[in-house]
Write a structure and sequence with these properties.
With 203 residues, this protein is an alpha+beta fold. It is built from eight helices and six strands, in the order H-H-H-H-H-H-E-E-E-E-E-E-H-H. Strands 1, 2, 3, 4, 5 and 6 form a six-stranded antiparallel β-sheet that branches.
């Protein structure tokens, strides 16, 4: 389940690389503007990989609420962890995302359509934005992006593909690691080792 979902989400994150033809207001416009910046910053293979990685991580910081995502993924272990371990996870999580997704950005071409945002029934600050795009084999892929509006500033909180949530999938996967490795510090160390040996690079 997890390898298949990660493969699908590898395609999902590429949606942000495609500029929308016309700027819009609201969460749809946020995703469109973010995509226009991403395609300009991340798809130029003449830029050294280390520099593109720094750009990618900067966009993660600005476009995604990494602390809120981390709190959800780590769940009860977040509450008991100290601040140093929390920050270590966020930085290592960015390394994971960079290794998993940045190689897929180079030379990507495709098209997508953004639907109207749907307000979250339980929280007026949250919206779901449907995005349909075509995978490399030409098949349409339907996704939803969870976006939060906090005083006019938008941040991405989650992505759903094939009915599965990226945040929830990682929460379940990491929970088993933390039970086995003794909490958040053990998870961070395992992720660091995997990143160091390139375990998350796409096939």
């Amino acid at each position: 389940m997890i390898p298949r979902l990660v493969k699908s989400l590898s395609l999902v994150l590429l949606v942000l690389l495609i500029p929308q033809a016309q700027a819009q207001e609201g969460p749809e416009g946020f995703l469109g503007s973010f995509g226009q910046e991403a395609i300009a910053e991340l798809t130029d293979t003449s830029v050294p990989e280390a520099q593109r990685e720094e750009r990618f991580k900067d966009m993660l910081d600005r476009g995604f609420d990494l602390e809120a995502i981390s709190r959800f993924i780590i769940a009860r272990y977040w509450r008991s962890a100290d601040e140093a371990d929390r920050q270590a996870f966020i930085e290592t999580f960015k390394d994971y995302l960079s290794q998993r997704f940045l190689p897929l950005f180079a030379g990507y071409q495709g098209d997508f359509a953004t639907g109207s945002a749907r307000p979250d029934r339980d929280n007026p600050e949250l919206s779901w934005v449907p995005i349909t795009f075509r995978s490399p084999n030409g098949q349409p892929v339907a996704t939803e992006w969870r976006v939060r509006n906090l005083n006019g500033s938008y941040k991405i909180l989650d992505v759903r593909a094939e009915g599965a949530s990226l945040a929830l999938t990682l929460r379940e996967e990491y929970a088993s690691v933390m039970r086995r490795e003794g909490g958040l510090a053990g998870l961070v160390e395992q992720l660091r080792q995997q990143v160091a040996r390139g375990a998350f690079r796409p096939d």
